[in-house]
């Protein structure tokens, strides 16, 4: 028998995260472009970020027909959160008078690169990066590179850089509960064997 799912957070009703999801305002607008393969992922952190931020939008797809309209938000300068040789550190944008439309591709690195390849307008955006040395709380997955963060962690760090001294740490509450739940489900011994140390 299929488990009943929460229509908002998409978690099984028995593990609904909605009570932990805050509703935070931000000057920065966050546009999450999610690869379809991430939608049913157990740790869909992009969805949690979109639910927790009042000035955020999540769109699922590979080719985004509405991209010109989505990127042309009056009063915002669009920036792509993605590494590149010429990417500006986000803190360089923090002093700007004009708020940022932070475009965040969500998927594995390979899928995120594919989104950029399939959407030349996206690839052409000026890029910004997070400060190095971020440590992920995502204890269930080996990071592909040092400092790799989950989507929600990257958004929290980006917003805290752009809107200091405002804290967006509350956004991580459902994410942390999700991880704790997964660790509990696998059992401490299995977790230590596969992810400990």
UniProtKB/TrEMBL annotation:
Pfam families: DTW (PF03942). GO terms for biological process: tRNA processing. This is tRNA-uridine aminocarboxypropyltransferase. Belongs to the TDD superfamily. DTWD2 family. Its EC number is 2.5.1.25. Keywords: S-adenosyl-L-methionine, Transferase, tRNA processing. InterPro entries: DTW (IPR005636), DTWD2/TAPT (IPR039262). It comes from the Bacteria. The keyword Transcription does not apply. GO terms for molecular function: tRNA-uridine aminocarboxypropyltransferase activity. SMART domains: DTW (SM01144).
